[in-house]
Amino acid sequence: MGRLTGGDPSLLRRINATVVLRALRSATDALTLTELVRGTGLSRPTVEGIMEGLQVAGLAAECADAPGELRRQGRPARRYRFCAEAGHLLGIEIGPHRVSAVLSDLAGARLDRAERPISEQAGAEERLELAAANALELVSSCAVARSTLRAVGVGTPGIVRADGSMRLSTALPGWTGLPLGERLRRTFRCPVLVENDANAAVVAERWQGVASGCTDVVMVLAGLSPGAGSLIGGRLHRGFGGAAGEIGALHLLGREAFPERLLSTTGEPLHPLDEAAVAEVFALARSGDERAEQAVERFIHRLVHDVAALVLALDPELVVVGGWAAGLDGLLDPLRTELERYCLRPPRVALSALGEDAVAVGALRLALDLVEEQLFVVEST
Amino acid sequence: MGRLTGGDPSLLRRINATVVLRALRSATDALTLTELVRGTGLSRPTVEGIMEGLQVAGLAAECADAPGELRRQGRPARRYRFCAEAGHLLGIEIGPHRVSAVLSDLAGARLDRAERPISEQAGAEERLELAAANALELVSSCAVARSTLRAVGVGTPGIVRADGSMRLSTALPGWTGLPLGERLRRTFRCPVLVENDANAAVVAERWQGVASGCTDVVMVLAGLSPGAGSLIGGRLHRGFGGAAGEIGALHLLGREAFPERLLSTTGEPLHPLDEAAVAEVFALARSGDERAEQAVERFIHRLVHDVAALVLALDPELVVVGGWAAGLDGLLDPLRTELERYCLRPPRVALSALGEDAVAVGALRLALDLVEEQLFVVEST
């Protein structure tokens, strides 16, 4: 009958349903029962039973005949497809200057994104409410029912506990101690995963960005709260206490100052410290402005220090530079030159392909991982 | 009959032999056939057959009756024990100032150690020959037959390729490119594993030192060629290109000088830069010598910089400080204080328990791992 004989019949049914669902999902087109039987090695009655169950669960649907398809003699072959629209996922970034969200279907295809600015000084409640409101408005504006949310991923600066609460966050006022996951679970009424922002960003770059196919990656997220996320052997390296890559203090070691001072061309700290302001300093430097040239040199010197320390410790295949440094293409050549000087085995260096979307997209990918584990779980026997 | 039914009969025999060997090895005392039958769940004829095979292979031996044991009626019960003396292992360190070796039996129990000094300027051939000669003399002096060597582990500074050749070593003249593993395999006529010295040292501290029971450890090996070895989730983290922890350049990032200058009390570089010389500077500082105090302060500042960079990148549970810094107990308190300042989640800090033996003992443990994999291999089914 099935792929397995004996054992727990409900487990067997679940494994068989998983096999069918995977086949449906990976197919580029709708499949007939005959194709499913052939592709899965299951019997026709088994596949028929599973397809009924998947249709009841809303995960598979029978297609109308493809347009122009000729009906042969007898009844036409029924065709089934995976219902990516049966569920939705949110990826949310909660940062120092803004909150943002991306919405996708069950296949991870993006429907839309939304963001709102927020003050660095805003309190935890205000920030949390704005993040939730921004995401819920995105869901409404896409005409998606809130009840179809299967999971929400959140990326935010700081050290996150396994239960989704914030162990420590120096970048956001009132954030330390916040039960962020629990609060958002109440809002969204589905599983909520909370991850450090740089960790989410490196996951995003591997999924849809410049780290595609790489297993050993360090991503440096420049910004008000500089941090790094690392993949080792394809898996997130969070560290023993979740603090891996919290390199905010590295510049103190190198006796350097904070980025808003490094990048200042006026003697006053650069404010606001965002991608546009930083890009302006870089443009000024390219046009020959001496103070801007010095500012860029100071900034690159610090970035090299941070990146080199990470590279020497971890020896990654690839370093991705993101945050508001992304898009600043004047950065890469000096960074490469300096890494060649300091590292016995210099890694490749690339700018983030996802730019300001990296954190939210990575949070979405982590939510999708959770849902896929649930949909496609096969217990090891 | 056996634990498995059907399948490859030679595989089945091997699995059963492994089960019996494990039982023998983990027992504190010799075991009777009846005890082995009870402990393994195998049949008596199966255990008898396996014991014959293990005796032929020299891995098990029948014991004489224990002294004072009374013979009951009938023939006495035969007792068997694991023959740890059936094979031997070497752990070798090849460093800038010395070569050393430790010898153990198949159970990892140490028989003896030996070391020889060598000049930092010695060429690769001279260093290799001295390392081999020192180890072979150790084997002879313990009255062990060279033919009983089952594996040799080697720890040495630099980046090691998977085939045991040196990809890069800046610390030892002529070392880069040397096919170290292959050369020593010809000498010892058994498998030779080559590992970075700091990686070997962290393995040693976990086996017999201060990192016992820890899974996330960074070990900093201070010395002429400072380096670090890391365990992540209990496994060595070698990095994408084998260069993880090659932090020799970190002090350049912090605009610091080399340790022989940092620790100088005369204006001239400290020479030789070994544990005794460094201990003398620390003792002078404790006695109130101002220049020595300044030297120690410079040295600690640099060590904190290196360690903090590693800790921020990796977030380990424990940092172990070894190399010639080991035993210098004045180091730990300032290191802890500084890490508390810089790290969001400061790790525990400890001095190496194995001191100058750490690299050779770690190399021995890696050789033992290899042999145990071979002796106790059970294929996953």
TrEMBL record, chains A, B:
<comment type="similarity">
    <text>Belongs to the ROK (NagC/XylR) family.</text>
</comment>
<dbReference type="GO" id="GO:0006355">
    <property type="term" value="P:regulation of DNA-templated transcription"/>
</dbReference>
<dbReference type="InterPro" id="IPR000600">
    <property type="entry name" value="ROK"/>
</dbReference>
<dbReference type="InterPro" id="IPR036388">
    <property type="entry name" value="WH-like_DNA-bd_sf"/>
</dbReference>
<dbReference type="InterPro" id="IPR036390">
    <property type="entry name" value="WH_DNA-bd_sf"/>
</dbReference>
<protein>
    <submittedName>
        <fullName>ROK family protein</fullName>
    </submittedName>
</protein>
<dbReference type="InterPro" id="IPR043129">
    <property type="entry name" value="ATPase_NBD"/>
</dbReference>
<feature type="domain" description="HTH iclR-type">
    <location>
        <begin position="17"/>
        <end position="60"/>
    </location>
</feature>
<dbReference type="Pfam" id="PF00480">
    <property type="entry name" value="ROK"/>
</dbReference>
<dbReference type="InterPro" id="IPR005471">
    <property type="entry name" value="Tscrpt_reg_IclR_N"/>
</dbReference>
<dbReference type="Pfam" id="PF09339">
    <property type="entry name" value="HTH_IclR"/>
</dbReference>
<dbReference type="GO" id="GO:0003677">
    <property type="term" value="F:DNA binding"/>
</dbReference>
